[in-house]
Amino acid sequence: MIASVFLTSACNLACKYCYQGTHENGRTISRETMDQLLDFLLQHIERNKEKNIMIVLHGGEPLLAFDELRYLIDKARTIIPSAYFSMTTNGTYLTPEMETYLQKELAYLSLSIDGSEASHDRFRLFATGKGTWKKVSAAARRLLLSFPELRARMTIRSENVDNLLHDIIELIEMGFTSISPVPDYFDAGWNEDTLKKLEQQCQEIIKWKGATNCQVDIGFIEDAVRARKYSVCSGLKSTLSIDSEGNIYPCTYLVGNPLMAAGHVKYGINPDKRWDILCKGEQPNPDCIGCSRYEYCPGTRCKLINQLMTGEFDRPSPVLCHIENVKYRSGVFSKRLQLERR
């Protein structure tokens, strides 16, 4: 089970692509809400017979709420012994004290970094407009010493897709062994030309990995090769997202959307709302029936994301559909290269 907890909506950056908006002085979770949250999670685990739970710490920038982060983890250790923790940080607010604590308490840590200085500083800026790469890259080198499996979380945009291979190589040379490039589905710049560039870059990465025998896990590329089937959406059952006020949502993309709020940690999940969401997950997508990727595509699984992007639960975003096709063709390309090398 995965529970994403938004410790604060505050952030010290002003990233141009941030889907959460700019919240420099956002709300931070209270101790009362954290106490209610842990009680709620314990009951939810027991009710659904879950063996363990990963609590993912979100923001804003979660380290702006470091006191709250530490309170939540320390108390969870006594209330939910099976809990383990992960977090994504922008890397600009780290102190030695924080690094020591995180090394001890986190099972997984991700750092938001978009590759080279040029690609990163194009979007990931301080509120002053100054780029953050120098500070983030220095934090990456320090963190990699204590977190060898530190994951680089990249955002792929239409504007920097040309540099994807170069950006990934730069991160590998920095020492990363796990890289998660994530296309921004909300980017209005995706079109026939930029999607073609994405596919070309994927093929270049696959060829480069084969030629260099690179063993680094590159999420988007490995996903293309593995082609994992999706199950029906488990939002509000084995996945939960909870904002800093204690409101409960099915997933992180929907946090803050009042139409998707399904309860509060003080009172629990609204059973009617939960049933409605689970039923929507079972509905077919008429436009997708017959597609060979039907069981592998998030567009047929994530009905709530469909509604967020297109206004209809059973109609996925065309951008998402095209990116999934790029992923599929990249997987075919990879397998063909493997056969040719034998």
TrEMBL record:
<feature type="domain" description="Radical SAM core">
    <location>
        <begin position="1"/>
        <end position="211"/>
    </location>
</feature>
<keyword id="KW-0479">Metal-binding</keyword>
<dbReference type="InterPro" id="IPR023885">
    <property type="entry name" value="4Fe4S-binding_SPASM_dom"/>
</dbReference>
<protein>
    <recommendedName>
        <fullName>Radical SAM core domain-containing protein</fullName>
    </recommendedName>
</protein>
<keyword id="KW-0411">Iron-sulfur</keyword>
<dbReference type="InterPro" id="IPR023867">
    <property type="entry name" value="Sulphatase_maturase_rSAM"/>
</dbReference>
<dbReference type="InterPro" id="IPR007197">
    <property type="entry name" value="rSAM"/>
</dbReference>
<keyword id="KW-0408">Iron</keyword>
<dbReference type="Pfam" id="PF04055">
    <property type="entry name" value="Radical_SAM"/>
</dbReference>
<keyword id="KW-0949">S-adenosyl-L-methionine</keyword>
<dbReference type="InterPro" id="IPR058240">
    <property type="entry name" value="rSAM_sf"/>
</dbReference>
<dbReference type="InterPro" id="IPR013785">
    <property type="entry name" value="Aldolase_TIM"/>
</dbReference>
